[in-house]
Amino acid sequence: MITRPGQSGRSxxxxxxxxxxxxxxxxxxxxxxxxxxxxxxxxDTSTPSIARVYDVFLDGKDNFAVDREVHDRIVxxxxxxxxxxxxxxxxxxxxVKWLAGTAGVDQFLDVGSGLPTADNTHQIAQRANRxxxxxxxxxxxxxxxxxxxxxxxNERTSLVAADLTKPQEVLGHxxxxxxxxxxxxxxxxxxxxxHHVSDEQQPRAIMQEYVRALPDxxxxxxxxxxxxxxxxxxxxxxxxxxxxxxxxxxxxFQTAMGTCFFRGHAEVSGFFPGxxxxxxxxxxxxxxxxxxxxxxxxxxxxxxxxxxxxxxxxGRKPGAEPGRV
Length: 325
Known about the structure:
This protein has 325 residues and is α/β, with parallel strands linked by helices. The chain has a domain at 88-238 and 261-316: Rossmann fold (3-Layer(aba) Sandwich), CATH 3.40.50. Helices cover 35% and strands 13% of the residues. It has helices at residues 12-16, 50-57, 65-77, 81-101, 121-128, 141-150, 167-171, 174-179, 203-213, 236-257, 265-269, and strands at 31-32, 38-39, 107-111, 133-137, 157-160, 187-191, 219-225, 276-277, 290-291, 310-316. Strands 3, 4, 5, 6, 7, 8, 9 and 10 form an 8-stranded mixed beta sheet that branches. Helix 2 crosses helix 3 and helix 4 (81-101) runs parallel beside helix 5 (121-128). It is globular, with a radius of gyration of 19 Å. The two termini are 33 Å apart. 43% of the residues are buried. It comes from Saccharopolyspora montiporae.
């Protein structure tokens, strides 16, 4: 549903031709996405959705005018914001490929998975291991409608409608306990989710609850918007500039959507409670939590970097012997 970075696809101008929010509504009260997919009538096309806004950043077509307005607001602040979203998606691809291939994990819980894309978690994992099982979790009606349509013919993949900020609701869902075997390692993915969870919602406690429930030998992968104010690896002038840009982007998202929280390295590290961080590259002494573009890159970063930075990392819950690591 989403054009891969680097592939040809519908231009951004074409995406915007649909006009104001009202123009997204077809006759007879039905709701259609830009792709023409019929969606549940309870979808609110007058309010931006986190999942649909990210769809715009990835040059997708399952969004509405109100979502594109948020995108335009952020791009006005940071013109290369789209490349940051693409880098985040590429990080997920590399992480799942490593987990399913090198680490030998065959169970994945992708929380806050968002709208389906050109290369989804189950497709990446099942290329490495056709027996891999994947459960997606999201409570956005658009995601649930598209996801269930995509997964109809894949018996080893499920989608659960649940609130990611309520771990017991997620972990205790009948479809989660039916598909995943909690006596064996599981890979839990929180890719771009926790920066939409406020401090008042206690994201650190949320992650502690998730990690506590995972079997020994499980993995946790996280990406998160990065405010480099506390980054010792960036010189002071650049750190000040990027931190100011992070706060400006945060205000832009919060004004448009009421959510978005950039955090520093120390704060994001706290979302891996008790986990052994994996090296972010071939140097075992390197930091396990780094910018997404630096985490096991498949080559040099092409083009200009966005000032919208994200951290990414994978941690392992100790106890059981690693698979093939």
